[in-house]
Design goal:
By secondary structure, the chain is α+β, with helices and mostly antiparallel strands. It contains 32 helices and 16 strands. A hairpin with a 6-residue loop joins strand 8 and strand 9.
Length: 749
């Protein structure tokens, strides 16, 4: 190979191909790239080379890189592509870990196997979501844990750390590695580490149909012989291969299957170095330690493993280990190269694949969706479509549901006549008027949950991050932060938790700081409710204006913080672009179901409790709202609301919205005593357009709900940042609410 043709990856034109010669940027970047298939001697094709980002194809995986990261990858240019080329024993509890890289169909498999028996919580001491479920079989009971997606067992994020710690500490009986049939080489990279940890592994090659549509053929039996571990082919979205997977898990746990894995090795030129490090660890660490795995991670430069070794061995041994590593600085490439050599040998006789230049459906779609000229208008049009459907479909359904709630209130009133008046008021105004009003949000929420779940499932959200990267840089973030922020339109809590996918601490902190400015479905539901009631035909214009102002404030806030507060740490952009595929309705249905049930539970617990509390405070001690305990609280803070045109009832509604944003409607329903009349009919009589506008501005920018506040504090890990965020939201909501009120009066709204 003539190294005179070596050049940075970013010098390749669209469609050109190359062989990776070297990787600069240090061990962290090289390790991260290796987990996604970008390693020495790998073949790579340039799909899109723009000024800010590049999109490349490695194997069958599309990856987006920042221009700075692309310049650190040196390649040897090969054949340029033309335009045409682009083209029944006693039951046993079996602990099963579902592992795999992102976008391999793990959630689909988990949902099918566990159904409604699954439990969603958090890992102990973590904010990472933990999914576990049970499957009862005649041969044994499976306890299935869905581990967070991870490219390797080098922990770059909290999710990857959780997945690694579970396998190391819990020692599951069986690990099921989900592999993407269309990108098998990359998926098997994780297997090269799992095989060194001890627990038996089953490889489930999923999405066989997607691979075949891309021209990839996999001989499952040949792959099983090459790997020495059980391998099954699956199409989880069509429920194919799941029964065989269950049978294999049980048989492997019983020792009825042959399990003789062929273990990966280090590149031949570093074998002596590896054996020397492994021998030192074996002599100085506990017997049960996984010495082979620890030695490879040490050669990779894994910081956490290196620290653990330093704390566990004598100082003179640690110095000796460091000296070996310093002498062989290319040890990371030896480990990665050995793994990919092992993968190539294992798949050589089992996989036949299409040429890299072949044009497929994903190429055609990405040709449009990832270009800023088309991609950004399409993204905005999609969100516009969501709000259009919400108004045209969701709001009429909401009104119908509100009519049913009001009819129910009228129906039960006669049966409450024998009871004291306060009982009737508690049931009709407190419970039905409060929590019942919130339940009418369900049509709006379900529509939004459904659309967002579909976009996530088909692979579009990664493209949204790609096209938005240049604009996100203006506020100090890159495109990957778009994904959690889009989740914020559903709920700010998963948006803040989703910021964990952002590796940079600086960017993660800024993403969390800005996420509460994203209007969640609860805020959007209140916005829809109030604007439709008060502004009637102008409701859509008012809502769009408020949403646009909200996003503008988010952008300006981010620009100021990025310019004057957070000014260090570069922002590498590395992200997989999964193949587009048909939506899996089972997975989408489970997402909608879980999110809807979570909302209904909250309406039946927290919101119901707040509604009852608000009603009690508004009734006692004299049975009249005007001189109640709540009136005293509201009247105490009413002077703050006067410059905004808000009376004490509206201020009280904003105060109770801190518990849950939906409480704003519940509180207004109680305080205005809507009962069986319905809040939609009452609001126009008690709110002027100017007051309603100020109320909505404050609500959109005000302190988020209690759940979001709690998660923000935990994720930020700093009282300083948390307090600054709190103070900023209070200040912005007050001054901009006052501005909106005066502006509305001035234009005669």
């Amino acid at each position: 190979m003539n190294n005179d043709n070596a050049l940075p990856l970013t010098d390749l034109a669209d469609g050109e191909e190359g062989i990776i010669l070297s990787l600069a940027g240090g061990r962290d970047l090289a390790g991260r790239l290796a987990g996604m298939g970008i390693s020495l001697n790998a073949k790579i094709r340039m799909v899109r080379n723009s000024s800010g980002l590049v999109m490349v194809l490695v194997g069958e995986t599309r990856i987006a890189l920042g221009h700075g990261e692309g310049e650190k990858i040196i390649v040897y240019r090969t054949i340029p592509a033309t335009e045409a080329e682009r083209a029944p024993e006693p039951k046993k509890r079996i602990l099963v870990a579902l592992a795999g890289q992102p976008n391999v169909g793990k959630s689909t498999v988990f949902n099918i196997l566990t159904g409604l028996s699954q439990h969603v919580g958090n890992w102990p001491g973590k904010t990472v979501e933990k999914k576990e479920g049970a499957l009862a079989c005649q041969e044994g009971d499976l306890c299935i844990v869905d581990l967070p997606g991870t490219y390797s067992l080098t922990a770059f994020s909290e999710e990857e750390r959780v997945a690694r710690d579970f396998i190391l500490n819990e020692s599951p009986d069986v690990i099921v590695l989900l592999a993407n049939a269309a990108a098998l080489d990359r998926s098997l990279y994780l297997l090269t580490e799992l095989l060194l940890l001890g627990p038996p592994v089953i490889v489930a090659v999923n999405m066989i149909d997607v691979a075949e549509s891309q021209g990839v053929r996999i001989d499952i039996h040949a792959l099983e012989r090459s790997l020495g571990v059980p391998v099954i082919g699956m199409i989880a979205s069509k429920n194919q291969g799941l029964r065989e997977l269950i049978n294999r898990i049980i048989s492997l746990d019983r020792g009825e299957l042959s399990y003789q894995p062929r273990l990966p090795d280090i590149a031949a030129d570093h074998q002596e170095v590896f054996l020397e490090i492994k021998d030192l660890l074996r002599k100085n660490l506990a017997v049960q330690t996984r010495h082979t795995w620890m030695a490879t991670k040490f050669m990779e430069g894994d910081k956490e493993i290196s620290k653990k070794i330093e704390e566990s061995v004598p100082p003179e041994i640690w110095n000796q280990l460091k000296a070996i590593l310093l002498k062989h600085e290319d040890s990371l490439h030896a480990v990665v190269g050995g793994r990919y050599d092992w993968i190539e040998e294992a798949t050589r006789s089992a996989v036949s694949r299409f040429k890299m230049g072949q044009v497929v459906m994903t190429d055609r779609l990405d040709h449009v969706l990832t270009r800023p000229l088309y991609g950004i208008p399409i993204l905005l049009a999609m969100f516009a479509g969501v709000f259009f459907v919400t108004y045209k479909v969701g709001y009429p359904l909401q009104k119908g549901l509100e009519w049913l709630v009001s009819a129910f209130a009228r129906q039960i009133q006669p049966s409450l006549l024998p009871f004291p008046p306060w009982i009737k008021g508690l049931v009709v105004d407190g419970i039905i008027g409060g929590a019942g009003s919130v339940l009418t949000f369900l049509p709006i929420l379900v529509i939004f949950f459904a659309v967002l779940a579909i976009l996530e499932d088909v692979g579009y959200m990664a493209r949204a991050a790609f096209v938005m990267d240049r604009f996100m840089h203006l506020i100090g973030l890159h495109g990957k932060s778009v994904i959690p922020m889009c989740l914020g339109f559903g709920c700010n809590v998963p948006a803040i938790l989703g910021a964990r996918i952002v590796e940079s601490k600086r960017e993660r902190l800024l993403t969390i700081f800005l996420s509460p400015f994203i209007p969640c479905t609860a805020r959007l539901a209140v916005l829809t409710f109030v604007t439709a009631a008060v502004f009637a035909k102008q409701a859509a214009v008012v809502s769009w204006s408020l949403l646009a102002a909200n996003i503008l404030i988010l952008g300006m806030t981010g620009m100021i913080i990025n310019r004057f507060v957070l000014k260090d740490e570069p922002m590498p952009f590395i992200m997989e672009l999964p193949l587009y595929h048909k939506p899996d309705m089972r997975t989408i249905g489970m997402v909608i179901w879980n999110r809807t049930i979570a909302f209904v539970r909250r309406a039946g617990t927290v919101i119901l409790a707040v509604s009852v509390l608000v009603w009690v405070l508004s009734y006692f001690p004299h049975g009249r709202v005007e001189d109640s305990l709540l009136a005293g609280i509201g009247q105490f803070i009413e002077p703050v609301g006067r410059p905004l045109g808000l009376d004490w009832k509206m201020m009280t509604a904003l105060l109770t919205s801190i518990v849950a944003k939906e409480n704003a409607i519940a509180t207004l329903g109680v305080l205005y005593g809507v009962g069986d009349e319905g809040l939609v009919r009452v609001l126009p009589a008690v709110m002027t357009p100017a007051s309603a506008l100020a109320f909505l501005v404050v609500l959109m920018l005000f302190i988020p709900c209690a759940a979001t506040v709690a998660v923000m504090k935990r994720e930020m890990g700093s009282w300083t940042w948390f307090g600054a965020s709190f103070a900023l939201m209070l200040s912005l909501s007050f001054f901009l609410g006052m501005f909106a009120y005066q502006l509305a009066i001035w234009i005669g709204l």
